[in-house]
Structures are given as structure tokens and as C-alpha cells.
């Protein structure tokens, strides 16, 4: 009998379909940052609207440049000690071939790079919601540059980089429960513990100035999140990306309904802010878990996240920390819930064969792994972020002055206001308009 011939596995080839899909997903993730800006911008008072928008938009500029220069290399380069990556050929995105494939996948390195860039952009922007009304724009810009370098890039390597300790341990984080949401939420808590409360916290009314803007932002986040989550499988040849897409919708819907139900029972009303916050809580919680749980598991994840996050947002009044727009209550708590529930609801039929306590042999093994990832990222981000905020505060100062905060940070930091009310008025004011315009024209001509 002739000896058996063993054929080498065929190397992956570039897939135009997967490449196009991932480019679309990258664009969807990018639109989440303006969506976040609208979401946060509607939740603050009028005098802080532009500053809130800019705190998200500036991330698209700063993080893009840092990612190109060294961030991609630190996060996804060759592993060093299971802590950080580095590939010198990737500095400045040099020496990367246009058709060079990401190892083990059918998409170019450039496509993977730009997809992950969008994650790097939105993560520090998430932190901004906790700091509304009181942080200097220059200090914020410096903070996110340092934070991305010291915190986000290393944590992304831990969780997703080949050789990262969490990745090798088997911590499941499909699209960013630890690397994005716990990371940002813990950072927000660390910074606000350093910079303190807003003037008038728990005394003055600080209601959202534009709930329609909040709902618009929520809608953009929900829409973009399909790229955020489904795209993280880097293709859909085996159906896991489709499962994540479906579970994203299911968990978000369940969380929104659960938040509203809790709100009605607790406070007697269904609010638009509650609907938007509940949806975001569901999106956060399903982000790490959606590839590991069944659709019924996604409902459970959403319901638990909706109720627990709704309860958590009130803790700032009990403990006295001023988390302006509930970044801790929604992103930190939601990220912890979604990551830990993998240890209970992982079915073994999605992204991996790992099962949770309620499936398979009812082992706690995956739950312990999830705990290790969750609490390591939480502790590191909390401490590192607090140190960075402290150093900036002691050098250039983190906060605007009390007078500037009271008068409005938009005018103090940007010399603009979000809304121009000077033309508002009744019929007399409108009828005077042409005369005033003619007078102004004569002044210019003169």
C-alpha cells in the first residue's frame, strides 16, 4: 500500500466579501463616536453642550494619529511578556503590504488596523460623560493621549493581542466588555475621584437640556453597534458574526424594556432618558457576551443589565461621587455584568466550546477566568487613570475655574454657544429684522 500523503492546510486567501464587510463595519463603529457626542451632548445643560460634543470629536483626531504612530504596534504587535506588543515595522504603518493578510484571516492587515482604530477612538470618548461641565479642554486632550498610551493600548493587547495574558488565559471578550467598557468606566471613576464634583452637585438642577438629541445619539449608537459587535469576528464564514448581530438586537431590546419597567415601578413613569439609557446598558452588556450565549441567554443578559444598571446610576448620590452622565453606572457596571454572565450563560455553541455554570458540566472554570479579566482591567484602569489625572491636575490643572464653570464651559473653553437665541422673539422683533439688517450693512459699507 502506498504511504498516505498528508496535505498542508491551504493558507487563507483574501476575501473580497469579508474585506468589504469589515470596511463597512469600521465605518459603523466610527459613526458611534458622533452618536456618543449627541447622546452626551443632549444630557448636559445648554451651557456645556459644545464642550461635550468636542470631548468626543477630539478623540477622532488625537487617537487616530497615535494609533498610526505607535498604538497599533503596542496593541497588536509581537507580544512581549504577555503585557505589551511591539512590531517596529508597524510604526507609522510602514512596511505593511496592501494585500498582506491579518494572520489566520481573510482580510488585509490595513482593514484590521482601521477597524481596531475605531475602537481605540470611542473608548476614551466614553470617559468624557463622567467629567461634564468642569474639565479644561487642553487638559482633557492631554489626558486622552496619555491614557490611550498607558492604559488602552496595553489592555487591548492583554485581551485581544496574540500572547496577551488574558487572551492566553481564555478570558472571553467578544467586542470589548473589558477592553472598552470596564476600561473606560473604571477610568471615569478614577478621574472624578481626583477632580471632584461639579459646582452645585446635589443642590442645583442639572437636567438634560435636549432629550431629542439624546434619543438621536442613542439611535446612532444602536445602529453603529452592529458593526462594533458583529464585525469583531472579522468575517462571517461560520455564522458566529450573525449570531452576535442577532444577540445584539435581542439584548438591547430586553434591557430597554427592563429599565423602563424598573423605572415605572420605582419612579412611576416611563422616560425617554430611561429608554435610551436602558438600550445603551444592553448594548454594553452584550458586547463581551454575545458570541458565547444563545438568543435566550441574550434576553437574560439584557434584562439583568437593564435592571442592575438602572439601580446603579443612583449610587453616585449615595456615595457622593459626581459621575455626571452615568458612565460608571452604565459602562462600568454594564461591562462587568456582561463579562461575568458569560461564566453562567456561555452555551459552548458560539465563538468557543467554553460553557458556563448553567451549561455543559456546570463548571465554574469560565467564571473564574472572567473574574480575573474583569477585576484586573478594572483595578489597573482605575489606578492608572487616577494617577494620570492627578499629575495633570498638579501641572497644568484639570478643572476650569468656578466662575467659568458657573458661567458656562462652552464660552470659557470654545468662545461659542450651542444655540443662538438672539433672533428669537415675537412679531415686533421679526418685523424689525430687515431694518436692523440694513443698518448693519450700512455700518459695514461705511
Automatic annotation (TrEMBL):
It is a multi-pass membrane protein. The chain crosses the membrane at residues 20-40, 52-72, 105-127, 139-160, 180-199, 211-228, 240-262, 269-286, 292-315, 327-347, 367-392. PROSITE patterns: AMMONIUM_TRANSP. Keywords: Ammonia transport, Cell membrane, Membrane, Transmembrane, Transmembrane helix, Transport. Residues 429-438 have a biased composition (Low complexity). One of its GO terms (molecular function) is ammonium channel activity. It is found in: Cell membrane. Its main location: membrane. Involved in the uptake of ammonium/ammonia (NH(4)(+)/NH(3)). Homotrimer. Belongs to the ammonia transporter channel (TC 1.A.11.2) family. This is Ammonium transporter. It comes from Streptomyces sp. R35.
